[in-house]
Design brief:
Length: 253
């Protein structure tokens, strides 16, 4: 056995060992990301305290139930920086736990969010001319407090366009830096939390992973538009009106 052959074998063994080590590191990293221990460990209270120090939040108290909300100006819009907590028929606690309401707000069916009869879960509003005319108002209130309203999909688009002028990264700039596994930057103090949603079969899904907010706009006879945030994207799509999702109110112009 020549010296050169021995050197060749040693080098080959070292290359294989290095490759195996790197592969093991990748597998280990992937496993850690999927494990419960990989969840964002930053405390909610710390995250909120930093925001309150950094942003010039306003406050608004809902006279109906005494709930007080932080508010934030983003571009030409003023938003509540918290999800609506007003309790009404057709609203639910996130993940079916009332203790979650203080932090995540409530989840609402579309008709509950609009403050209209539940019969419109599967038929278009234009079947009732009075409701149609009221909802055509730019500041249609729905279940929002007086002086506020349920956003239209155009208002959600305006928000996303303002925070994402240079890149399609609204999902990063609007999400909070706590709770989400991949922390958001919360660049504008919107403080979106992953409240998840509820299907009409009673199943609560994606708590701690996703969030959706109603738009007032219909989409077909049984759907309505919603603005959604995940750790990877932000989008506006139609979902069943019988689903229960979050509500963010925007101030009347």
């Amino acid at each position: 056995m020549t010296t050169s052959f021995i050197v060749f074998v040693i080098v080959a063994i070292l290359i294989i060992a290095l490759a195996s080590f790197r592969m093991g590191m990748k597998v280990s990293k992937a496993s850690k990301l999927e494990s419960p221990d990989a969840q964002n460990a930053r405390p909610y209270e710390e995250c909120l305290a930093q925001n309150e120090q950094y942003f010039e939040y306003g406050t608004f108290t809902d006279p109906r139930d005494g709930e007080t909300y932080r508010t934030i100006e983003i571009g030409k819009q003023v938003w509540m920086a918290e999800n609506l907590r007003f309790k009404t028929e057709g609203s639910f606690a996130p993940d079916n736990d009332e203790k979650n309401v203080a932090r995540y707000g409530r989840l609402y069916t579309w008709t509950a969010a609009m403050g209209i009869p539940s019969v419109f879960s599967d038929q278009q509003v234009d079947k009732d001319i009075d409701i149609k005319n009221k909802m055509s108002d730019k500041n249609f209130r729905g279940i929002a407090p007086e002086g506020w309203h349920i956003p239209s999909d155009q208002e959600w688009e305006e928000l996303a366009a303002f925070v994402s002028k240079k890149a399609k990264d609204a999902h990063i700039k609007l999400r909070s830096s706590c709770i989400w596994q991949k922390p958001g930057r919360d660049t504008y103090g919107f403080f979106a939390l992953p409240a998840g949603y509820r299907f009409d079969n009673g199943c609560f899904c994606q708590f701690g992973k996703r969030t959706r907010f109603w738009s007032k706009n219909e989409y077909g006879s049984s759907n309505a538009y919603r603005f959604g945030l995940t750790e990877e994207s932000a989008d506006i799509e139609g979902v069943y009106r019988s689903d229960a999702i979050s509500v963010r109110c925007v101030k009347n112009a």
